[in-house]
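Lab notebook page, bench 4
Experiment: in silico fold of construct C2
Operator: M.H.
Input chain length: 325 residues
Purpose: comparison with the prior construct
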Amino acid sequence: MHLSHFVNHLVADYHCCGRYQTAEGYLSAYRSMIAFHGGDLRLCDCFTASWLHAYHANLLKRGLRSNSIVFYISRINSLYNKAVSSGDVTARAGLFDHLCTKPVPTQKRAVSPEVINQLCEGDLSKYPALAFSRDMFVLSFYLQGIAYIDLAHLRKNDVDGENLTYQRRKTRSTVPVVIDAEARKIINKYKNADPESPYLLPIIRSGSPKEERQLYKNALRKQNRHLKKIAQQLNITENLTTYVARHSWATIAHNEGVPTPVISQAMGHQSEEITHVYLQSFDHSVLSKANRIVIQTVLGVHQKQTWKERKQKRKAKWQHVEPNG
């Protein structure tokens, strides 16, 4: 069987399940493989130590960053495992042992409460487009560090009074959020007025799956471009991206003494089996308390209390929090 045939069938299956991001990851790896090889190739030819070594060496020669290389190698490894499971290739012990498939730590993405506060209070009234992007960044932070892709795809029926429940597109885990007053102000300001649109916010509009994927990609590029301009406008030296809101929420929550299991559930983390077993169900009041602590930390950055003093007090409040069940 040829690589193209195998990948196309796999991608079609993921599309049927609505897992478009996963499908795109495999397609990216496939395009990289055939670009290196100079055309299509058989599965039995690409899953050899010599071919993989040459491919990996080419990625290094092109100057790709470590995690970009890991992205391709890990997906090729996954393709190999699926091909072995389906009986299309023979298993070869240690085939990927000489290749790195685990991401390496990247530069710090989180920013301090002071920077988040600076964003919230910055005057962007002369720049409506930048103000909208700033508010979407802040809303992502206020909604327990919701990922931008999940923010863009929030639906009107995900909101029930003060409660928001959404399914992460990456992990398919369900995340409950109690909408804080600060988040409610932004939602009310920008709530999608189009009665035909299912989406809560005017980041993307409804269409075919292919159209919506392209609309989201365009919106993501614009958002990150605008965040760079916002940083310049507000004299923020830190690098701002959509990831920063999510990482900052988790980091501030941790520094304020919020227990790791609460942070994990609040953000919909479900990547490792041991983590999934460890995480127990906390009710909405506990998650709401965690979110409120993070928001109050940002809103109260002008207080003279030090981070260490606040952290000690927060930890004392969380010592007796127990999960349900």
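Observations: The radius of gyration is 22 Å. The mean pLDDT is 85.
Next step: discuss at group meeting.
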